[in-house]
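User: I'll paste a sequence; please echo it back and then give the predicted structure.

Assistant: Echoing your sequence first, then the prediction.
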Amino acid sequence: MKATEVPAIAGAYLFEPTPYADERGFFCRTFDADVVRSVGLAPDAFIQDSVSRSVRGVLRGLHLRSGAGEAKLVRCSYGRIFDVVVDLRPDSPTYRNVASFELSGETQVTLYIPAGCAHGFQALTETADTSYRIDRPHDPAEDVTIAFDDPELAIPWPLPVTSMSQRDREAPSLAEVLKQRES
């Protein structure tokens, strides 16, 4: 497994496993504490694992947490997703940058998203399972959502949106969220 910095988002990393494939399929390590440690992250800081299953066209996000934020490791364990990170840390050298990735069950690449960044994804396949490993217990009172179609972000979602939560449909613009965070 190797770790690669994401230039557009300071402190973000892609962890790329080395799959071993044969006639049975493949095997790969999707988390390696030594590799995580090698880029200055604490592997034991992650305390909660979750998984979501989405159908083609479903869009989840853009989500972030208020307060101390939430760092997470995200991996598409089955299918393919178009994954997006928005740096919303005012002191970051990549503040307001947007980076997108295709994550898939074929590659099992894991994306590390630093606390203070918004995250969202869209399912590209009929079924897409997405695994999350987060560093804090979830507190719904800290949930923040930003409109997926905010013109300032201009995210090029690859498919028409087939479904999303009511919270995501009603999300405020980036400008509104930033104004709320300043007050």
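The mean pLDDT is 95. The helical segments are 33-38, 166-169, 174-182.
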